[in-house]
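ingest -> validate -> predict -> emit
validate: passed (alphabet ok, no gaps, 173 aa)
predict: started
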Amino acid sequence: MKKHTIGLLLALIFIFTACSNDISIGGNTDDQHSNFSEENFTGDEPPSAFLVIGEERIELTQGGFNWNGRIVDIVSPIDLLRNEGVEPIVVQPEEEIRFEVDYDLQPNEENLIRLRENSEWDVLFLEDNSFVVPATPGEIFYYTYDIFWTDSEDPQISVASASYVFSLRIAEN
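emit:
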């Protein structure tokens, strides 16, 4: 039941934020990227996204997306990472982590959701595409990083979107 609740909750948040201009959770609202239309996007799948931790660049696991008319939905982030055999990335307590997206047109909205095994979740605010991990040694957190390219004439319409998942284990010093 908990798996279905988390999946449904994430799907609703993803849909709600994609369809609402009033919700900008830590989003990048840079107007230089406001002229998006479907012809701006190439390929069958969204670009790769990465975590940057210090000098290390780690590719994230692709989740659901809406790209060039192709819509792909996934299982819950925790299930996806487990099914793919992706181990948590070990980070230091209160370490700063930055996101990078390998695409010329950067998204103009982004969301970050932190999940726990017990179905608790938080929406985190990003500043300059980055966030600071918790200071709880040994704990594992699961994340969904959602990015959106909204329509230039109607910002309530998402022209393209992608979701990426990853998990972090806070190192015990």
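The first strand starts at residue 49 and ends at 53.
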